[in-house]
Amino acid sequence: MTGFHLLRVVLHLFQGLATCALVFPLAGPAMRERRIRNWSRKLLAICGVRLVVKGAISDSPALIVCNHISWLDIFAVNTCRPCRFVAKSDIRDWPLLGWLCDRAGTIFIARGRQRDVRRIFQGLVQSIHAGERVAFFPEGTTSLQGTVLPFHANLFEAAIDADVPVQPYALRYLDRSGQPHPAVDYVGETTFVQSMLTILRHRDITAELLVLQAMPSAGAHRRELAVAAHDAIAGALGATSVPA
Q1: What is the mean pLDDT of the chain?
Q2: Predicted structure pTM score
């Protein structure tokens, strides 16, 4: 059955490519969001992933931060409420999905380039002021379930400058017994294709998104916000904090 599900994924990706090329140039923000949400929801369904959201997602402007486990994370969040994501430039190289992420408004950042961070920071503030929802993964890379890596603080400055709170999301993927699902882990030398095939072989995965209490940014320092968001997410997941 893996081959059948893989064919469905490929066909769904091509449908997304067609939508980005033909519909998005003519669509307004509301239609784009609706298309992104529906496309992301169907991708999760094809992969055998059921999304459960715990907590109320607010429409108020905020800088959204989330722990990072898998390439599925972007689509789990977008199923709830489409965002402009800041993601590492490696994602651009994903087969088909990289181009789709780009067309959906993902902001790519190159590792170790301080000039890139400054440019993106300014763009984040502008996007938030324009009413867009902006999200990023402050760990900077994926981590094994049950652990949360230290958060990079630089981009938290955008919440302070835009005068919006930081909204932490805690994300995990569970099996039937409620334990972390090992098929979703996307670390080390695992390639995107290998990860996709592993997920399609196992399926029956529950993605649980916990919407935590928003954190005011007024008067805070970016490092304080980063530590507070990290501790809130790690605590909600019962995860081990990996030292820097």
Answers
A1: 88
A2: 0.90
